[in-house]
């Protein structure tokens, strides 16, 4: 089985979601199905069908999370150091065209969240950054044309 790199925080978020699904959402949907069954004719009972659809989603997500957790390879960025970009690094960049600075942490595929500045290891920007050092320039294909960034800082914490 192939291991998936992940930070400890990413693994914790997946475990928390799994725990919530098993202890809160699963029992709630079972109660909703029981209530809908009590209303009688199931063939025309929209509440019953909605609850069954929700149950199906929950069970599928539980299986997916269990698989992700079992294949997670936790990498602690605080044990890494240096100026070279690696998994888990917090990278400060400047867009050479607009001079806009931004920061991203390179994380596993299943913990990425661009709104939280967590960039997937499989994203074009992360792929371009891996192995580069402070001061290096990277070019990344984008819908409006290639974007060029300079690496200002690499932080491991």
Automatic annotation (TrEMBL):
Transcription elongation factor GreA/GreB C-terminal domain span: 83-156
GO biological process, one term: regulation of DNA-templated transcription elongation
This protein's UniProt keywords: DNA-binding, Elongation factor, Protein biosynthesis, Transcription, Transcription regulation
Domain Transcription elongation factor GreA/GreB N-terminal: 5-74
InterPro entries according to UniProt: GreA/GreB_C_sf (IPR036953), TF_GreA/GreB_CS (IPR018151), Tscrpt_elong_fac_GreA (IPR006359), Tscrpt_elong_fac_GreA/B (IPR028624), Tscrpt_elong_fac_GreA/B_C (IPR001437), Tscrpt_elong_fac_GreA/B_fam (IPR023459), Tscrpt_elong_fac_GreA/B_N (IPR022691), Tscrpt_elong_fac_GreA/B_N_sf (IPR036805)
Molecular-function GO term, any one: DNA binding
UniProt xrefs under Pfam families: GreA_GreB (PF01272), GreA_GreB_N (PF03449)
Gene3D superfamilies documented for this protein: Transcription elongation factor, GreA/GreB, C-terminal domain (3.10.50.30), Transcription elongation factor, GreA/GreB, N-terminal domain (1.10.287.180)
Key word Protein biosynthesis present: yes
Family designation: Belongs to the GreA/GreB family.
Function: Necessary for efficient RNA polymerase transcription elongation past template-encoded arresting sites. The arresting sites in DNA have the property of trapping a certain fraction of elongating RNA polymerases that pass through, resulting in locked ternary complexes. Cleavage of the nascent transcript by cleavage factors such as GreA or GreB allows the resumption of elongation from the new 3'terminus. GreA releases sequences of 2 to 3 nucleotides.
NCBIfam families in alphabetical order: greA, PRK00226.1-2, PRK00226.1-4, PRK00226.1-5
HAMAP family: GreA_GreB
Name of the protein: Transcription elongation factor GreA
Gene: greA
């Amino acid at each position: 089985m192939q291991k998936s790199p992940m930070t400890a925080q990413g693994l914790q978020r997946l475990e928390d979601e799994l725990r919530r699904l098993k202890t809160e959402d699963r029992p709630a949907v079972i109660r909703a199905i029981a209530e809908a069954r009590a209303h009688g004719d199931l063939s025309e009972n929209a509440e019953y069908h909605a609850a069954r659809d929700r149950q199906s989603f929950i069970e599928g997500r539980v299986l997916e999370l269990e698989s992700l957790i079992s294949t997670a390879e936790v990498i602690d960025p605080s044990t890494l150091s240096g100026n070279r970009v690696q998994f888990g690094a917090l990278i400060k960049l400047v867009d050479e065209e607009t001079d806009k600075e931004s920061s991203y942490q390179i994380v596993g595929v299943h913990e990425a969240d661009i709104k939280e500045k967590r960039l997937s290891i499989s994203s074009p920007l992360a792929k371009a950054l891996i192995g580069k050092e402070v001061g290096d320039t990277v070019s990344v294909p984008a819908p409006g044309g290639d974007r060029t960034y300079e690496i200002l800082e690499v932080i491991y914490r």
